[in-house]
Design brief:
The complex is a heterodimer of chains A (335) and B (304). Chain A is an alpha/beta fold. Chain A contains 13 helices and 14 strands. In chain A, the strands form 3 sheets. A 6-stranded mixed sheet of chain A has the order 6-7-8-3-9-10, with helices on both faces. The longest helix of chain A has 18 residues. The two termini of chain A are 32 Å apart. Chain B is built from 14 helices and no strands. Chain B has 304 residues and is an all-alpha fold. The chains are: A alpha/beta (335), B mainly alpha (304). At the A-B interface, helix 2 and helix 3 of A face helix 2 and helix 8 of B.
Chain lengths: 335, 304
Amino acid sequence: MTEENTIRAKDLTKVFNGSLVAVDHINFSVKQGEIFGFLGPNGAGKTTTINMLITVLKPTEGKASILGYDIVKQQNNVRYSIGVVPQEYTADEDLTGVENVLLCADLYGIPRSVSRKRSADLLELVELTKFKDKKVQTYSGGMRRRLELACGLINRPKVLFLDEPTLGLDVQTRAATWNYIKTLKKEFGMTLFMTTHYLEEADALCDRIAIIDHGKIIVVGSPGDLKESLGGDIITLSIEKNTDITELVKKINHVKDVRKEDGMYIIKSENGEVTAPLIIEALRKKGYVVTKLSLTKPTLNEVYLQYTGRSMRDAEESRETFFAQRATMRRARGH
Amino acid sequence: MSKNNLSKSKLHGLWALTNRELKKWYKTPVVFFLTLIQPIIWLGLLGNALNLGSLVGSSSFSFSPELISQLQLTPAQITGLQNFFSNIGDTILQGTFGTTSYISFMAVGMIAFTALFTTMFSGMSVVWDRRLGFLNKVLSTPVSRAVIILSKVLSATLRSMFQASIILLIAVPLGFQFGDAFTPINILGVFAFLFLTCMGLSSLFIAINIRSTRMETPMAVMNLLNLPLTFASSAFFPIDQMPGWLQAVAKVNPLSYTMNGMRQLLINPIIDYSQLALQYAYVGIFAAILTTIGIVLSWRFLNK
């Protein structure tokens, strides 16, 4: 139990129907008390990884352990130690909020005497006390998500798994849900493992993230480190004349890299705020007029672009395509 | 932390999951009301429309005065003949259906029929549980896989038993006649038949459905099974009156055994105990085999 790494995965692999490689020999570890995020587009293998860790799917190859318990050999130990908040709304529409939470408690064999108090506390925590006796079919998306959170916490888990915790929520509700997650983590001091395909979410919540694409982990690190690894800020500018100024800019202080793309110069630099005026000045001296300039602090999108070679937003498609994709994936993996 | 948790009974969560299914039914007024209305429609409409008894059984028969004077019958002879003709229908009904009341015959068929439908729909709810992610959530909890399946079976069984009681209660004012051999204890025997039948059927349907992610496949399978199971059984008509090939099917159909067994307990004038034992044995073996197969197949699927 004095395992330093709460979650450990070694060459974890899942192949569906003998050919569809959903998760491909991934290795990672999650430290006790951190929020670890799996970031990647839909179909990258995030949910499959979670399903293996929560003992719903058996890995085809490789190993993983939670709190030192093997996810295949010690399934029951794993199940008692974890809480799961699935991406779907799994609460029963025909039952009330409190009935749903009590049902979850029963699934862990928690006696009514304990679960009554605990469910009341959890519903209070997610601010659903007022609606606890209403049927779930009257709940909004945000309320349902909070109810799922309450259900996932009923067994006081040491590790909480959140699969796309804000999928399909509007921006405001999403931010509110982030706050709940942060509060819960503080309150219970749990280790959190979450998946998301929202860059902002990974940035706002996670202590460390793993970028996953096509079933493989591409890079692991804290959002800050990953952004840092890009080499600083990005200055985008264009000039009046159609001459190549790449070499000229490269000589300027702090500038690390210059690329030309669609007539725009994309300049990587530390301390962008300081470098930008220097660049304008240097160009003006040579007789070039800067027509446009923008300065961006690197976001996870740039990180994503750097490591996967494509923009996260390109990987994202419309909601309809997304649901169609998800249905296809689910059929392929029989889940 | 998990030491005392792990010593929990292997069956924990069974009642919680069963009750979830039952609540979806009795806490939804419309659904509950419809389950009560359904047997009334079956019995009231179908029982009367298909009332084969009315074709052969005439409750009163009388000679015209002209006929009496022509045949020069004494009043005693008239009464005798009248009784004879009046009873022909009843005799035929008694011989064919084992009771003089067709609606009683059919009501028992309805009970088994309702059990078939209830278990079918309960099997289909597995598909929803999968699609909505509920199944995955339950799978991540320490509930035994067998309990997940047993809870479905149990809820369907309990519902069927409740509905059977309702059908009987409704059938009585509609003309249901208990047989001479009936005692209230026999109701327990009827429940035993239903319990075994529902266990078997519901395990079968769950094993069929748990593998599909879409509603269409189970619907098609259910429709395919539904008609032969219903009509190649003694639900509407006794087996020995059927054409030979249909008899062959009906004689292996477990529903026939359930229905005939329940008829013995409820409406027949005398109970043939050797037959009854055979019927229990048949339904019992059917239940044991299908429940085992169902649980093994589902278990395998849930543990992949």
